[in-house]
Here is the input.
Amino acid sequence: MKDTPFPKLLLFINALVPLVLLLWDVYHKRVGANPLEFVTRTTGMLTLVFLLITLAVTPVRKTFALNRLVKFRRMLGLFAFFYGTLHLLTYIWFDRYFNLKSVPGDVASRPFIAVGMMAFILLVPLAITSTDKMIKRLGGKRWGRLHSLVYLAGIAGVLHFWMLVKSDTRLPLTFGFILALLLAFRALVKYSPPAPKGFSGSVVPPR
Amino acid sequence: MLIKKPDEIKSSEITDKTVYLNRRLFMRGAALLGTTAATALLYRKLNQPTSEKPAGEKLANITQAPQDDRLRQGFTVNEKLTPIEDITNYNNFYEFSTNKQSVASASQGFVTKPWTVSVEGLVNKPKTFDLDELLRFPQEERVYRLRCVEGWSMVIPWVGFPLSALLGKVEPGSQAKYVAFQTLFDPQRMPNQTTGVLDWPYVEGLRLDEAMHPLTILATGLYGETLPPPDGAPIRLVVPWKYGFKSIKSIVKISLVAEEPPTTWNIQAPNEYGFYSNVNPDVPHPRWSQAREHRIGESSFSSRPTLLFNGYAEQVANLYTGMDLRKNF
Here is the structure.
C-alpha cells in the first residue's frame, strides 16, 4: 500500500464497481431479454463516461486549483481504455453471430462501427505510452502531443454513439455537449491569454 | 521567544500509535464503503433493466382450428415460444420510453378502459367500436414470429381476430386502396409523447390487400390474456411478415384511404424505413445487415438466418409479384 496512495486505491475499486455489478447481473440473468445488447451498451456507455471524466480532469484542476487531481488522470484514462476493450470484445462476439464471415466488409458497410473502431484504435497508442518510462522516453512535449489524440478519440466515440441510435439522440447529444464544453475550455486556455484568435463574441479584444 | 521544552506534552497525552492507525484504518474503510456504495447506487439507478409482471385478464372463448391447417396457413409455427417475461419487458414503444427495457415500468398502470377504435374514411358504414364490441369478434390464437428491424426476433402466441373481419363490417368503398392506422395521442397517459423523438401520433399503413390478408390480425391479447401495456394494450395490429414497427400499437383510429398514407418511421428517416418494410434478408438497412437475427431467449452465442417475408413467403409472396423489393423496401 506504500506506493499506492489510498485515494488511488479508492478510485481503482470504484471504477471496477460497474463491472462487478454488470457481471453479477449477467450471472443472475438480470440483464433483460437481450443480454449481449445490454452488455454492449453498458460497456460502451462506461467507456464514454470514463473518457469524459478523464477529459474533465484538466478543466476542473485548473478552474478549482486542484493540482493533485492530475495524479488520477492516467488511471481514469486507462479505465476508459479497459471498458473500451470490453466493449470491442462484446462487439466482436455480437458481430460474429450476425456476420460470420465479413467483419471488414461489415465495418465498411456500417459507418458507426468504423467510427467506433477508429475511436478505439486512437486509444491504443495512448494506453501503450501511459507508463512513466514511456513518458521519459518520448519526452514530455512529444508525449503531450501524442496524447492530444484523446480529443479525437472522444469526438469519434460520441459520434459513434450518435450514429447508432434510431431516433432518440438526447443521450448522445448530452455526451456531445459535455465533450464540447471540455474541449472549448482547452481552446479558450490555449488561445485567449495572448491574443483571442478565432474567437468572437464573449472575448473582449484588447484595446 | 518561546522555546518549547520537550516534556511540555506528557507522553500519556499523545495518541497511541495503534489507536491512530486503527482510526486511520477505520476512516479508510468508511471511505471505501461509502464511495463504493454511492457508485453502486448510481450505476443501478442509471442502468437497471426492469422486470414487471403483466397483470392481464384471462380472455374467454379462444377458438383454434386443427394444428395441421394452422401450420399450413401460417397461423402457427413449430418454434419455441418466447417467454412472457421477455415479450413484456423488451419492447419498442417510444410513447413510453425509447429504452426497450424501461417501457414495461413506464407503461405500468396505462388506462385502457374506456377505449374506442373509430373506423372511418372511404367506407359505407363508418363506425366507432368500443373494446367490448371488438372482443366479440371470434378470437383465435396466432403464433407468429416477430422480427424487429433492429435484428432481434421473438415467437409470440397472440390472441386476436383478422383485420378483414373488422373491415368487412364497415364495407370499404371502391375508392379505398390503403388502410391508415393511428395510435392514441395523450401525453398524460403516454408520457414520452411530450418529447420530440418521433412525430406524434404514431401512424402506420397497409395496402388494402395486405390489410385483408388472413395473416393480418388485430391482437387483443397474448398467452391467453389481455394485451399488456408494453405490447400495445388494448388492441394492436400484427403483420407478421413485416418488421415489427409496422405492427402499430394501442390503435384508436383506422381510416380507409385512396392514397398511400404517411407512416411514422418513414417520416423519421425515409431512406431507412420504407412504406412496405417487408422482412427481407437481402435488403440491408443502411446502417446494418438484415441477413441474420438473434432470437430472444436463445443463447447469446447463437443467431439464425432471417427468412424472406419472415418465413411467410408461401402465404404472402403473391402480394408482391412483379414488384422490385429493393426499390419498394
Observations:
- The domain at 62-320 of chain B is CATH 3.90.420.10 (Sulfite Oxidase; Chain A, domain 2).
